[in-house]
């Protein structure tokens, strides 16, 4: 195609009158915009863990290695023992109580209760898991190695069990690291906390070596198992970028922090993958969204033009899991609500929303123009980008006249005719621009929905409109495109659970019983049951009850192993 | 990454559960921690628990129907738990302490090779179970063996098996062997402080 540029060969969406910087393909092997954060210190900790494992293998397999290590350790302890004084011994015996079980128990229960109080359940689960893991590793290693207390030096302190690795040092270290990574915000406070946590650990180690209760290699190995391993696990399972520890709330907890590394990664991804020259990215309208982090993206305009606003929705695996748990809970409570399928990955979720945005537009329905999506972290974080609906206002703030009601009814009718259902019709997802209805947030829409789901869409739209006008007026206008029987079906299908939580909240605030009024206006129809009993649901409920029983029994049995009992 | 993290998490959980079983002294053990009757680290830690004891209990016969299950050791006390090989509820507990109360126990015949050890037995329950305590008292220490067996035809035989499974290891011998291997003394001279 001589003389044709790529720009002229492929027609871009009309909304992109923005500066295009030229896309760049990420070469094989290059890190994604926001790689998982096992950084330099993480690699160091992993190396230390590897070294400890090698050491353990050596001293279990080769007795000469064990003997050499013991003799080296004792030489150090003998040198330390030379420094013993009566007063020093007295002080060190007192200091050694830092490793007492009750100290660890208080720290751990305090952490668990604080995490419950702050409703930081992800951190709590990871904390319990890491605590159990460390306790188990220390216990198994101690029994496997079976090391005696130091020989040749008088042991002055209290002890129990095998010497290697040092159980009290590992337990205190794990408890303090647990506090730092679940309760202390990352950055300066946590860095300061690390220094502070180092003080009791250093004191305990000094005391145990002075009293010759542990060998030096016992405390070194326990530092790795009790501190380095937990740090790596906390970074892996509760990365700050996804699960930040904060005490000031912006919007809902589901929203991700888009500053720092993630902010830079977003700008880089938009530049390289969509060719957008991004000026700024900031959270936007957080209160209306719980399933993603909505963003306003400012993009440099073409020469001499103002910057362009774009809209983005950032999805992470935390959002996906929240959606999966939400639907799981609904499946237990109501049976499968006909068409509630699960997304298996964040990529699938974003791909689906992108596809549906295009499908809605193909059907002539007004939705934001999609620009595609970008990958922030493979399989974990994606950002979908659309036009920013400038000049549009949410239904909750718009003036709702007959034209708006008619347009809204026409939109629902069109969805019925082309076989689509939005499934999340609420004030925040309905925008009004120049008297026309625009639908946003189509991520959970469905193609070829059940009649029940279509009926629910109609009822939800009528409720939203009635909140800004009157049920009589909405009913009257609805009959221009729907039959009375169809409206009756819509309200027979509607229950509290089928109404989005935002609409329910607004209905409560409004005070009028709009649902009842619509049912009075429409022909009488028996409610449509939403309870679906099936073998699957019986199995699901049974499995959940069984799992709860097992978890409670196991939890009680393992509390002791985690040092909490 | 998520796919890779799952097996790691499951493996860790399995290790945690196995480890918990191990730490609780249950029958699930990942490693053989039997304190056998030869000089080594496991016997050394038993000896360190009661530094005055002239003898240390150990497992003499690894092929015995009595199986070692766990060792609990702390300053002043060491305890070995054993169970009989069949699941009929036979269990025994061997404990080394500095002293023991042999009052009311019946003296037993001395055992060959242990002239400085006095043996006693107390049998408070003969039926429906054979439950009691054997005492081995020696200089600076005492080993008590608590047993609890169903009273059937082979209870006495099982008790004899238990006697041959658990032996006493002389501290002097252990000390000499550790000194030879590690060039370190089992019993360090008391520190001035």
What does this 3D model show about the protein?
The complex is a heterodimer of chains A (565) and B (193). Chain A is of the alpha+beta class and 565 residues long. Chain A has 4 domains: 40-247; 250-387, Phosphorylase Kinase, domain 1 (2-Layer Sandwich); 393-521, Transferase(Phosphotransferase), domain 1 (Orthogonal Bundle); 534-565. Helix content of chain A is 54%, strand content 9%. Chain A is built from 19 helices and 10 strands. Chain A has helices at 6-9, 40-61, 63-81, 86-95, 101-117, 121-145, 167-183, 188-210, 216-237, 260-274, 317-334, 346-362, 402-418, 451-467, 471-478, 484-493, 501-510, 514-521, 535-559, and strands at 278-283, 293-299, 308-316, 370-377, 381-387, 393-394, 420-421, 430-433, 436-439, 446-447. In chain A, the strands form 3 sheets. In chain A, strands 1-2-3-5-4 form a 5-stranded antiparallel beta sheet, with helices on both faces. In chain A, a hairpin with a 3-residue loop joins strand 4 and strand 5. The longest helix of chain A has 25 residues, at 121-145. Chain A is elongated. The relative contact order of chain A is 0.09. Chain B has helices spanning 2-23, 41-49, 155-165, 171-182; strands at residues 55-59, 66-74, 77-84, 91-97, 106-107, 118-125, 129-138, 141-150, 166-170. In chain B, 31% of the residues are buried. Chain B has 4 helices and 9 strands. Chain B has 193 residues and is of the alpha+beta class. The termini of chain B are far apart. A 7-stranded antiparallel beta sheet of chain B has the order 2-3-4-8-7-6-5. In chain B, strands 1-9 form a two-stranded antiparallel ribbon. The chains are: A alpha+beta (565), B alpha+beta (193). The interface between A and B is large, with 50 and 41 residues.
């Amino acid at each position: 195609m001589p003389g044709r540029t790529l720009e002229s060969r492929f027609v871009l969406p009309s909304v992109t009158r923005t500066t295009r910087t030229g896309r760049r393909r990420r070469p094989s092997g290059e890190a994604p915009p926001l790689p998982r954060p096992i950084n330099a210190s993480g690699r160091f900790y992993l190396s230390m863990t590897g070294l400890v494992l090698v050491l353990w293998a050596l001293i279990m397999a080769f007795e000469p290695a064990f003997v050499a290590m013991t003799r080296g350790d004792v030489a150090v302890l003998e040198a330390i023992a030379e420094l013993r004084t009566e007063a020093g011994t007295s002080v060190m015996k007192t200091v050694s109580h830092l490793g007492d079980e009750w100290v660890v128990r208080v720290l751990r229960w305090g952490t668990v209760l604080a995490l419950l109080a702050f409703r930081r359940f992800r951190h709590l689960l990871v904390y319990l898991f890491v605590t159990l893991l460390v306790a188990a590793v220390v216990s198994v290693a101690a029994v496997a190695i079976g090391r005696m207390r130091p020989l040749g030096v008088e042991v002055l302190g209290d002890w129990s069990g095998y010497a290697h690795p040092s159980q009290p040092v590992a337990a205190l270290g794990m408890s303090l690291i647990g506090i730092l990574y679940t309760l202390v915000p990352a950055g300066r406070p946590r860095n300061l906390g690390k220094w502070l946590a180092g003080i009791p650990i250093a004191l305990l180690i000094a005391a145990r070596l002075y009293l010759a209760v542990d060998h030096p290699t016992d405390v070194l190995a326990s530092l790795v198992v009790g501190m380095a391993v937990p740090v790596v696990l906390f970074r892996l399972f509760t990365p700050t970028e996804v699960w930040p520890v904060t005490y000031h709330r912006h919007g809902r907890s589901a929203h991700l922090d888009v500053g720092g590394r993630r902010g830079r990664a977003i700008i880089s991804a938009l530049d390289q993958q969509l060719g957008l020259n991004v000026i700024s990215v900031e959270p936007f309208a957080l209160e209306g969204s719980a399933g993603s982090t909505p963003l306003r993206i400012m993009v440099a305009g073409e020469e001499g033009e103002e910057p362009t606003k774009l809209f983005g929705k950032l999805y992470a695996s935390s959002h996906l899991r929240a959606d999966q748990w939400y639907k799981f809970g609904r499946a237990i409570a109501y049976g499968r609500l006909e068409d509630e399928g699960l997304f298996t990955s964040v990529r699938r979720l974003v791909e689906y929303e992108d596809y549906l945005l295009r499908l809605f537009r193909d059907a002539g329905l007004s939705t934001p123009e999609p620009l595609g999506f970008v990958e922030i972290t493979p399989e974990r974080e994606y950002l979908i980008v659309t036009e920013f609906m400038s000049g549009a206002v949410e239904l909750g703030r718009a003036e709702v006249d007959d034209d708006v009601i008619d347009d809204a009814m026409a939109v629902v009718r069109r969805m019925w005719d082309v076989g689509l259902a939005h499934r999340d019709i609420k004030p925040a997802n309905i925008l009004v621009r120049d008297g026309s209805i625009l639908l946003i947030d189509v991520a959970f829409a469905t193609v070829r929905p059940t009649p029940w789901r279509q009926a629910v869409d109609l009822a939800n739209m009528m409720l939203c409109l009635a909140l800004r006008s009157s049920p009589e007026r909405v009913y009257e206008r609805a009959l221009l495109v729907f039959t009375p029987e169809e409206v009756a079906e819509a309200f027979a299908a509607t229950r509290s659970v089928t109404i989005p939580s935002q609409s329910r909240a607004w209905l409560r605030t409004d005070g009028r019983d709009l649902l009842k009024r619509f049912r009075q206006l429409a022909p009488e129809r028996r409610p449509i049951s939403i309870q679906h009993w099936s073998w699957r649901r019986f199995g699901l409920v049974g499995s959940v009850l069984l799992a709860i029983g097992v978890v409670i029994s196991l939890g009680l049995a393992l509390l002791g192993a985690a040092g909490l009992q | 990454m998520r796919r890779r993290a799952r097996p790691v998490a499951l493996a860790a959980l399995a290790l945690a559960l196995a480890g918990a079983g191990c730490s609780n002294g249950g029958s699930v053990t990942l490693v053989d921690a039997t304190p056998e009757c030869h000089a080594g680290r496991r016997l050394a830690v038993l000896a360190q628990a009661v530094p005055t004891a002239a003898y240390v209990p150990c497992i003499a016969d690894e092929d015995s129907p009595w199986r070692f299950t766990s060792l609990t050791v702390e300053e002043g006390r060491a305890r070995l738990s054993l169970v009989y090989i069949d699941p009929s509820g036979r269990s025994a507990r061997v404990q080394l302490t500095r002293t023991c109360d042999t009052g009311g126990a019946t003296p037993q015949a001395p055992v060959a090779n242990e002239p400085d050890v006095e043996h006693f037995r107390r049998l408070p329950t003969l039926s429906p179970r054979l439950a009691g305590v054997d005492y081995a008292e020696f200089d600076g220490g005492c080993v008590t063996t608590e047993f609890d067996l169903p009273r059937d035809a082979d209870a006495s035989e099982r008790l004899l098996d238990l006697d041959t499974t658990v032996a006493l290891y002389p501290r002097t011998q252990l000390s000499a062997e550790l000194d030879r291997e590690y060039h370190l003394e089992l019993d360090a001279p008391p520190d001035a402080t």
